[in-house]
């Protein structure tokens, strides 16, 4: 991918691509059936996005992902965070 693509994403989201790539790398072998792992990911994404996730919403996201109803990706978490 070209550098301009990443710059555009950083500009729109306010999140550095380095942070996104670090998070993506940490997710490669993560166990998404484990509640603590999923909570950690949610907290990291909310921190990167500078958006608070209320406990009840975090619980809903964790339940949905650990049960297999939703897969864990940025789109899923973003959608759930925006539907609070």
TrEMBL record:
Annotated organism of origin: Bacillus amyloliquefaciens (Bacillus velezensis)
Pfam families from the UniProt entry: SpoVIF (PF14069)
Protein name: Sporulation protein
């Amino acid at each position: 991918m070209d550098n301009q693509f990443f710059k555009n994403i950083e500009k729109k989201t306010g999140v550095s691509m380095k942070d996104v790539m670090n998070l993506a790398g940490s997710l490669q072998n993560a166990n998404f059936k484990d509640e603590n792992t999923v909570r950690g990911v949610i907290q990291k994404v909310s921190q990167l996005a500078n958006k608070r996730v209320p406990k009840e919403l975090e619980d809903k996201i964790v339940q949905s992902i650990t049960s297999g109803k939703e897969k864990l990706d940025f789109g899923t978490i973003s959608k759930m965070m925006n539907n609070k």
